[in-house]
Hints:
Distance between the termini: 73 Å
Number of helices: 38
Number of strands: 5
Protein name: Tetratricopeptide repeat protein
Keywords: Repeat, TPR repeat
InterPro entries: TPR-like_helical_dom_sf, TPR_rpt, Ycf3
Strand content: under 5%
Radius of gyration: 33 Å
Structural class: mainly alpha
Largest sheet: 5 strands, parallel
Strand order of the largest sheet: 2-3-4-1-5
Pfam families: TPR_16 (PF13432), TPR_19 (PF14559)
Mean pLDDT: 94
Amino acid sequence: MADHRHHxxxxxxxxxxxxxxxxxxxxxxxxxAPAAVSADRRLRGPYTAVGTLLRALVPDALVRCPEAVRxxxxxxxxxxxELRGVVPATxxxxxxxxxxxxxxxxxxxxxxxxxxHGLVEFLTAYARTLGPGPHTLVVEDVHRADPTDGEFLxxxxxxxxxxxxxxxxxxDDGPLDAASSPAEPLAPALAAHCVRTDATGGPEAAPExxxxxxxxxxxxDGTTDDPAAARAHAELPAAQRHALHxxxxxxxxxxxxxxxxxxxxxxxxxxxxxxxxxGADLLRxxxxxxxxxxxxxxxxxxxxxxxxxxxPTTHPVHWWTFTAKPATALAALERTDGILPYYEQAxxxxxxxxxxxxxxxxxxxxxxxxLTGEHRDYRLARGWINTAIALASQHPEPKxxxxxxxxxxxxxxxxxxxxxxPEAALALLDxxxxxLDALLDPGEHALHRSVxxxxxxxxxxxxxxxxxxxxDYTAVIAVDPNYAEYHFDRGVVLRRTGRLxxxxxxxxxAVRLSPPFPEAYYNRADVRAELGDLKGAVDDFGYVVxxxxxxxxxxxxRASLLAELDESDAARQxxxxxLAVAPDHPQLLTLHAQLLAAxxxxxxxxxxxxxxxxxxxxxxxxxxxxxxxAHASGDVTAAVADLERAAALDRDPxxxxxxxxxxxxxxxxxxxxxxLDAVITETADPAAHLQRAKSLRxxxxxxxxxxxxxxxxxxxxxxAAGAEDPELAAEAADLxxxxxx
Length: 741
């Protein structure tokens, strides 16, 4: 069978990459797909390559695999808005539907990673409908891609079977953009999953010269990599250059394709005759949209470009967008060092109370949520949030005043929680909810009102008030049923209360409503295991590992279940993969020791236990297992020492039973009986009755034995002889017969 691999073609110019690609033994492209897709973000901004591909494939996919389109509608419509007239939106939420004025919640930076996984699964489903494969997908200009496309390609290269769809990535010969930090970066994926081809050669000689070459540069939306074209464009008189861009912008506007407003159309407006007017308007629109969608690197790009075009005195609304939205994006991207300068500059520039209110809130959240370690400062945060509340309380319009005050008091509630005052946080949230319910109409500020109730649910859950938490989660689900995180959070609380079937239903809803995210499958796997569906749990943990190979606890849990299912080879593979990521993980090391012990490699098993204890000296299972191994080897003294340490750390009856066995073998029978009394009280385990009988028999033989010890031993043996375990019952019966004789 042919060895199929993805490819990475590097060359300084596109023409050289095209020539090098022609020499590769590549299968054909899907009939509906372009021969090559450009990822140059100047064309359409975030998801330029994805959108170009989906606009070509989705109409065909609606015929071939409509269920795959339906399952991934969120991913498709988020990345490719042109398909809104083709693909129905079935999972809208209050967040996705909120008007800008009411937008108070922003997506996690990990949302684009979830989208990438969903898109890869859609492409996999589509590729399987194409008949005998493989087929080829060529993505060019990836060195100019927005991080959203780069992240998608990283996931695609890792998860897509090249025997189904061979991916060919084209970049120049320089380093890839390291300024962004997607959750799944592209450079390591290219190195790990691609055959690399390096080529040389310059661009194709352009037949045009001068103004004609500049016109071509504009016509190609500035994406040519011919430096002569860029020079010709720069050398044109400004009026002529502006006219070319204005004309091209009008051509693109006539296409009425929304993604162009994040790329080429936007660029032409910047380069045209009204950069500070129309250009700034489109940049502001793009900044707001990408912030709402969670495309945060693009927000930083557009914000920087927009700020260069406007002055805070003549364009205060635009200037504030290019200040506030990048600060929000930096917070979402966890690049905290760059946030405070935005707020400090805004405070130094503006006297607008609304701007000072938003800066105060943002600064409070910076010191509460985003800064870590010694930089986190709740006292400073409280001062800034009180400033925000004071400013909010001065708004002249009653409804807006109530909303703004509630929004900022919600921030104060978070500070109360972080400072260990959850009851104070609950009082604040109760008051906010009551005030808004009294003043606002039912549909007004629905998103933020649901956020308040959700936050109250989280405080209830933290206090262990599970029924109150479930009630609040149920209330927010009623008004926002497609928001996956609400179902997920309720499922977590339901699981804590033992309502496993209901928890499972909530985790399944979270899985159904969201692009793939590991935590939903991880929690569903745990519940499936508790309900006895070990195979389903193994499958879910396996999917978690496919989404995130570094999710160590998923590997641990799957390995534990595989060991329970007697699939020791598969369990060992998971343990070894987990230890490659986290070599000092005490639970993985202990499970590794269990697997080694089962194979008779007791020395290596003991060494693995010792490694676990070096990583965590308080990890009782490693002490217990090492004690059991010492006992099995005949080293009773070491066994007692380790098992005593384990018993001091963990009241697990199994550990105490094993310590009692070691005490018996060390002739420490009174201590063994004391331990077994407690074990029997807790578990009524027949094995504990048998073991206690053995120690009681020894004690009864002593010259100072108390009366009744032998009768107690007989009673234990009678109980043990009725055990369902035939070996245990037979041993008890034999010992009972011996005593009677």
